[in-house]
Amino acid sequence: MTEIKSEQQLVDIANQIRQDVVKMLVTAKSGHTAGSLGMADIFTTLYFSGVLNVDPSNPTCPDRDRVVLSNGHICPVLYATLARAGFFPLDELSTLRKLGSRLQGHPHRGTLPGIETTSGPLGSGLSQSAGMAYAARMDKQKWQVYCLGSDGEHDEGNTWEAVMFAAKYKLDNLTYIIDRNNIQIDGHTEDVMPLELLRAKYEAFNWHVLEIDGHNIGVIHDALQEARSIVGKPVVIIAYTIPGKGVEFMEFLPEWHGKAPSAAEAVEALSELRTLSGRIDSEHQ
Amino acid sequence: MLVEHITLSSSDQKPIRDGFGEGLVEAARRNPNVVGLCADLTESTRMQAFKDEFPERFIQIGVAEQNLVTVASGLAAAGKIPYIASYATFSPGRNWEQIRTTVCYNNVPVKIAGHHAGLSVGPDGATHQSLEDIALMRVLPNMTVVVPCDAIEAKKATIAALVQPTPVYIRLNRAATTVFTSESSPFEIGRAEVLAEGSDVTIFACGSLVYDCLVVAHELMSQSISVEVINVSTIKPLDGNTVLSSVRKTKRVVTVEEHQVAGGLGSAIAEFLGEHFPVRMKRLGILDLFGQSGEPNELMTEYGLTKDRIQLAVKESMNYIE
């Protein structure tokens, strides 16, 4: 079990993870920046605020909570979080997307501690999570399943198959956190394939719906705690996030969905993160 | 010369899929982690008996084959041994990418039963006649591909899949097929079995057509053509030793399958022999076509998968070398 951190410590960890993400992506020269930065606060809160029952020193402990990243392309934030939590050495982060690395371009189950499933092709994480949750209930296990996914992957039919399945079987040990950042590769979600009214859709499918600011760590923590307490329904947390959060020239722009920063852009991004957008002088890290 | 444990005179006709249903119940009795998932075809895929005996281990997915396999992947990651069943055109036809990523790349022990494979589905027509599934599954790393030749072998294959730590695809037919193997017939995943010994031509066959090949071999004895028939019940991994030792002897090869010639058993044998012992081959199967509606026997005649055509192919192969 990871040590519980204060809210300010969590803010600092999220900032550190964002810096890790930028460094990983500039080194790898390819990868997905916007979603990785946008989900840093949620990953931080999940792993460091005491919500999640995982043990980095025993990553396959049978009664651990399961974390499934459905939109595998934002794995830089997952990798950085796992490394910061102690699942594997921090210096391994620089191997992202390199030949022979455990940090594959999209997550692969079986080599890197803390990775529960292979993902990348969109829309299949929720149903795998539902399968895990179903198994936990069959075996009368208390562990929870947290699936993190994207708004864009709601274009996939497989997602809605899983939404129906989880509701039918009342998988209340399943929490699905949607990164509602409104972008996907080809542009804004409402232009590519409109998803709204997303909340109403989930309610109609008989899910318990929470909507939160995906950058407010206190709010994220409270939502994750509330999700654990819901009985009889799966829970979806629609987390409104800013793609590229923390680096102003990346924020809100679909073009940063699948692009890595150049060396110069990385310097600028890291400077902004280290000085908290110029609010503090020191760039010491 | 037929091996002892099989009989051509059997009048017992049974759909190969029935063996899956019986095998699943037996597998579930042996291992409490076995779960069964079905995509709205419980009776047709013969999962009903399992559902009746183990209702708490049966999971209805609805008509959602992508969900069928991905939920199974999640169950397997959490320690279950899922058997999933639908028609082969839908699973593995529709959900191939999910099988590739979440089952094979994850390397979790999901067992995929592809029902109504081949032309012999009959009147439902081409949409439901899976003629590509062996090819789809054979190219996937970590996947084992099994094509039982009768109901008894299907039962054995279903039970044997239980102890494979990897994904397994089991291809099953709907039409009543002669039961010609016996409980004592050897079956092992990864092993091809010589069912008739011969010295002139080797027929490699799988699934429902193995029986017809044996009948042809028997008939050709009177014409002084000695045919070896090998039941290639596991297409992947291919039993190269058995293939090679037979072809070194006969040097003539015919393959027979209820599947596209491209990518199926015939391809697997050709690829192997091409590298290890090149011989000219005659491959019987579907020649880059879709099926159509019709009675199973009408379709098999229309598409050239009859005993007469197999016999012709054997005779033709006799001319390939002196």
Protein described:
The complex is a heterodimer of chains A (285) and B (322). Chain A is built from ten helices and seven strands. With 285 residues, chain A is of the alpha/beta class. Chain A has one domain: 3-Layer(aba) Sandwich (Rossmann fold). A five-stranded parallel sheet of chain A has the order 1-2-3-7-6, with helices on both faces. Chain A has a two-stranded antiparallel ribbon with strand order 4-5. In chain A, β2 (145-150), α6 and β3 form a beta-alpha-beta unit. In chain A, α1 crosses α3 (40-48), α1 crosses α4 and α3 (40-48) packs across α9. The longest helix of chain A has 22 residues, at 7-28. Chain A is globular and about 50 Å long. The relative contact order of chain A is 0.16. The mean pLDDT of chain A is 96. By secondary structure, chain B is of the alpha/beta class. Chain B has two domains: 13-178, Thiamin diphosphate (ThDP)-binding fold, Pyr/PP domains (Rossmann fold, 3-Layer(aba) Sandwich); 193-318, 3-Layer(aba) Sandwich (Rossmann fold), CATH 3.40.50. Chain B has eleven helices and 14 strands. Chain B has helices spanning 16-30, 48-53, 65-77, 96-105, 133-138, 151-163, 210-221, 240-250, 265-276, 296-302, 307-318; strands at 13-15, 34-38, 58-60, 81-87, 111-115, 144-146, 168-171, 176-178, 193-196, 201-205, 227-231, 234-236, 253-260, 281-286. In chain B, the strands form three sheets. Chain B has a seven-stranded mixed sheet with strand order 3-2-4-5-7-6-12, with helices on both faces. Chain B has a five-stranded mixed sheet with strand order 9-11-10-13-14, sandwiched between helices. Chain B has a two-stranded antiparallel sheet with strand order 1-8. The mean pLDDT of chain B is 97.
